[in-house]
Amino acid sequence: MKSLDELAKIRDEARKKMEIRAGESGEKTKIIVGMGTCGIAAGARETMGAVLQELEKRNLDNVLVTQTGCVGLCEQEPILEVEIPGQPRISYGKVSAEKARQIIARHVVNGNIIGEWVINR
Fold this sequence. Notes:
It is built from four helices and five strands. The chain has helices spanning 4-22, 37-42, 44-57, 97-109; strands at 29-34, 63-68, 80-83, 90-92, 118-120. A five-stranded mixed sheet has the order 2-1-3-4-5. A hairpin with a 6-residue loop joins strand 3 (80-83) and strand 4.
């Protein structure tokens, strides 16, 4: 780091990343990843990482990402839920990192629900 401008840029990037995880929801799309013990054992950390990477890659700052504990469907973990304002919450089951990337692209960005992966509407 050589200047205050560089420090300000680093600060702004860090704030943006923090807002994705803990920002005000308002009219933002929400993505909720099941991170209970069963979810983590099934790969939820990798799923969460893929979600965050894909949102950053696509520069989507209108999406709030949170986590939740076990939702009682351990056989469907990792579970990822998408809640777009004005639409019902969609729950996807057995979401690998690759499926998470596709959910961001197809559902969050383009509004197309991936029916074969849905476990609850």
